[in-house]
């Protein structure tokens, strides 16, 4: 069957309209997935952030928080780990991106290890993700030599997380609330095991407890 010019024109218009609707829906779903919007269009309540202490003066609050992406990295046994899995979603997280050839990263690793020793629980974890291209072969000996016993070993040799977060440099640390939203970031070194930083994180955990259904694992 041959189509006349009018039919061809109408068909072309229809195709353009359908494509436009598809793009619009796809973009809308992407925004629902990444931002703090529920599928019913209502903005999800955010866990209140405590006042930023002087020790975290470089901390930048993310005005439009995003959910943890479904990004894969690896643990010390080379098992795949996913950022948005149940274990991480039910905790306040401090995600630290570091490398062994980064002097500021090396300098703050003991403080992060101490922080994990003091606060690590089913409600909080320091997720220190090594960025060395050699992965476990480089990071594991470093952690052993520097007596970093409290941090779990995580590696991301292709820097997938850094790319997703558009990380500008190392070390960079992200504060994630117990609902799985990335709430703040800090580029550079901080005294992570100082009393005021610990108090800040304890308050963030406590703020979450005041919200119904905050923790999946009681």
A few lines on this structure:
The protein is an alpha+beta fold and 218 residues long.
Q: Tell me which CATH architecture of the largest domain applies here.
A: 3-Layer(aba) Sandwich
Mean pLDDT across all amino acids? 83
Largest sheet report? 8 strands, mixed
Number of domains: 2
Helix and strand pattern: HEEEHEHEHEHEEH
Q: Please identify which CATH superfamily of the largest domain we are dealing with.
A: Glutaredoxin
Structural class: alpha+beta
- Low-pLDDT runs of 5+ residues are 7-42, 213-218
How would you portray this structure in words?
38% of the residues lie in helices and 20% in strands. It is of the alpha+beta class and 218 residues long. It has 2 domains: 1-34; 54-209, Glutaredoxin, CATH 3.40.30. Helix 3 (103-119) links the parallel strand 4 and strand 5 (124-130). The longest helix is centred in the N-terminal third of the chain and has 30 residues, at 5-34.
Give the key terms:
218 residues; alpha+beta; 2 domains
Produce the secondary structure layout:
Layout lengths: L4 H30 L25 E8 L4 E4 L4 E3 L3 H4 L2 E7 L4 H17 L4 E7 L5 H10 L8 E2 L4 H6 L6 E5 L4 E7 L7 H15 L9
Parallel strand pairs: 4-5, 5-6
Antiparallel strand pairs: 1-8, 2-3, 2-6, 4-7, 7-8
């Amino acid at each position: 069957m041959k189509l006349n010019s009018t039919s061809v024109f109408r068909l072309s218009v229809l195709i353009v309209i359908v494509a436009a609707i598809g793009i619009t829906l796809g973009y809308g779903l992407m925004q629902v997935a990444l931002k703090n919007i529920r599928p019913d269009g209502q903005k999800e309540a955010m866990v209140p952030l405590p006042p930023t202490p002087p020790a975290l003066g470089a901390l930048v609050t993310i005005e439009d928080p995003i959910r943890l992406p479904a990004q894969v990295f690896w643990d010390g046994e080379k098992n795949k780990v996913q950022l948005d899995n149940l274990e991480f979603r039910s905790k306040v997280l401090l995600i630290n991106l570091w490398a062994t050839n980064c002097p500021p990263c090396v300098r703050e690793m003991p403080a992060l290890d101490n922080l994990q020793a003091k606060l690590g629980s089913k409600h909080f974890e320091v997720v220190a993700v090594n960025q060395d291209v050699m992965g476990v072969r480089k990071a594991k000996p470093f952690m052993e030599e520097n007596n970093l016993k409290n941090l779990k070993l995580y590696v991301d040799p292709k820097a997938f997380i850094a790319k997703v977060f558009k990380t500008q440099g190392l070390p960079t640390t992200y504060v994630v609330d117990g609902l799985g939203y990335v709430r703040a970031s800090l580029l550079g070194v901080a005294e992570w095991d100082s009393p005021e930083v610990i108090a800040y994180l304890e308050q963030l955990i406590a703020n979450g407890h005041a919200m119904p259904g905050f923790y999946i694992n009681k």
